[in-house]
Amino acid sequence: QVQLQESGPGLLKPSETLSLTCTVSGGSISNYYWSWIRQPPGKGLEWISYIYYNGYTNYNPSLKSRVTISVDRAKNQFSMKLTSVTAADTAVYYCAREVIVGTNSHGFDIWGQGTMVTVSS
Amino acid sequence: ETVLTQSPGTLSLSPGEGAILSCRASQSVTSAYFAWYQQKPGQAPRLLIYAASSRATGIPDRFSGSGSGSDFTLTISRLEPEDFAVYYCQQYGTSPYTFGQGTKLEIK
Question: Most-buried pick from A16, A33, A55, B78 (CB within 10 A)?
C-alpha cells in the first residue's frame, strides 16, 4: 500500500528557505501527479504546487515567485523549496498524490500525515 | 482563480440524521474535476468523492455527491458518530486548484 511521508525542519527563522521532501513508499512515483498543500493552524487548505513524474510543474500564482518543486525518480521522492519565509508561512504542509486515469482525475487519493512548520524569530 | 464557498459554515446534527453540505463556485467547474474531502482533528484530509459523484475506494455508500456547473452537494444519509468532522470541497480542473473554506459537521 502506497504511503507518503513528509520530512523537513519544524522551525525556521523569517527570511530563511523552507525545504521539504515527500518520500513515496510501497509504490512508484511514475505516472502520477504529486502536490504540496498547506494548512495554517485552524484554517483551510491551500494548494501550493504539483509536479508530474516527468518533471512537468504547475504553481499557485500566489506563491509562484517563491516556490520550486522537483522530483527525484531514483529516490522515489519529490521536494519543495519555499524562499523568504515569514510567519504567514506557518502551517502544516502535506504532500499528496493525484491519480489521473486517461484524461480524468480521480482526485488526491493519498496524503502524507503532514509536517508542522513554524516560522518564528 | 475559482473561489469555492461552502455552506453552512457549521452544521449541528444528531447521529442517524441526514446531512446536506453545499459548495458554490465563483465560475463554472468541470464536474470531472470536483472532489470532497473529510478531515478529522490532527489528521490529513481523506478523499470521499471525486468527479463530483464517484465514491473513492472504501468510502461507505451513505456518502454521495452531486451537482454540476457552479453548484455541488455532498449528502450523508445516516450520520454515524465517525462522520462528525470538517468537510472540504475542491476543484482541480482550473489552475490554481482551490478548496472551499470548509463545513464543520458537529454533534448536536
Answer: A33
